[in-house]
Amino acid sequence: MYLLPKTVTDKLDKQRRTFFWQGNGLKRKYHLVKWETICQSKEKGGLGIKGIRRMNIGLLCKWWWKLDNEKGLWQDIVKAKYFRGGVLRRKVKVNNGKKALFWEDPWLNDKPLCTTAPVLYDLCNEKFITVYQVLSASGQLTFRHWLPPILFEMCMKILEDVYSNDFDNVADPVTWKWCKDGSFSTKSVYNHLASGDVGVKFTHIWKAKLPYKIKIFCWLVEEGAILTKDNMVKRNWPGDPTCCFCHESETINHLFFQCAVAKVIWGIDIQQYRSWMSTWLPGGSPVYIFCLAAVCWAIWKRRNKACFENKKLKHPAEIIIHACALMSYWAGLYGAEMQSKIMEGVKTVLLGAVYVVNLEARLGSPKTAGDSDPEYSTSEAATD
Ligand SMILES: [Zn+2]
């Protein structure tokens, strides 16, 4: 029941960070995105992993709330020893004023008097006095020293407002300010602490029907954080920064969209499935990310194979065939109707890709893709 020192939260975060990027493996891996960004909510561009410090504060508030609102032995002991007034952001509706703290609770206005009249609060001897106690003493507050006229007037004005308030002889209901229904939740504290975060939403990714791993991949691509060679160079990697498919520098934009290979892929693909999308999709939007992710992931996997296993790409259609296999596999995430539409679309694209491959083979250059490579065998998608 205490605030963890920053050194402790930093150590815990370091372990969580390492686990996030390299799992249980001992091999050091690059941390592609700042931990602070990852800990932001998905609405603010992060992954919604909880920040330890904010959780710590939220849970502390929960204890504090219990202490203030539940009766019991431990509450009595802790109150007697430590409790010196309310600093919780609670909302009190004043009836008899026995619960509401005169200075500390926001009962008269939206903000508590300790923040709207800080000098008076500072000088007052009774900082944690209840509203009821103020009324019982006929508004006689005592101060550390004599009040200059301006402060005296301010004090009179406050008391005037106090006496114009409607009081009632029943208990004050206490509610939690940051929850609509007035009940306490740790989440509300956490969200309040995170309300200042800024970032871009990636709702289109999180809402898409894709395996979680692929969503993270898309998020990294959009964050500009995937380890293309330009990003590796920024991390002092000494290797060759040129693209595995051509001889230009490899950047995210180059690899996925500007590379000659990517242009062929999008060329074939877009021709084929533009008509496919427009015939069966209103706006094509839900499947747009789905297809984009499949093609980008297929490019990425093939690029890794070329970079790390030295397996040269024979024809860009290899990548399209792989993307088709991925789409027919991921289509299972949709309902039956959409699934069959996707399968139909995949079939069209696949036919186009196979046609191109065969044509190239007949012309004799380059060699047929996919015939000797089991990973690109898409018999289930092709024969369906
Ligand atoms: Zn290239």
Short description:
The protein has 384 residues and is mainly alpha-helical. The protein has 18 helices and 2 strands.
Characterise this structure:
By secondary structure, the protein is mostly helical. It has three domains: 1-85 and 185-199, no CATH class; 94-172, no CATH class; 203-383, no CATH class. It is 54% helix and 2% strand. It has helices at 6-22, 35-38, 52-69, 73-82, 113-116, 118-123, 131-136, 149-163, 186-193, 203-207, 212-222, 229-234, 252-258, 260-280, 285-308, 317-330, 336-363, 379-383; strands at 90-92, 174-176. A two-stranded antiparallel ribbon has the order 1-2. The longest helix has 28 residues, at 336-363. Mean pLDDT is 80; it is low at 366-384. The protein binds zinc ion. Residues 243, 245-246, 248, 254, 259 line the site of zinc ion.
The helix tally amounts to 18
Shape: elongated
Q: Tell me the distance between the termini.
A: 61 Å
Rounded Rg: 32 Å
Tell me the domain tally: 3
The bound ligands are:
zinc ion
The main sheet comes to: 2 strands, antiparallel
User: Could you name the ranges where pLDDT drops below 50 across 5 or more consecutive residues?
Assistant: 366-384
The whole-number mean of residue pLDDT values reads 80
Strand order of the largest sheet: 1-2
Structural class: mainly alpha
Strand tally? 2
Order of helices and strands: HHHHEHHHHEHHHHHHHHHH
Helix content: 40-55%
**Beta-strand share of residues:** under 5%
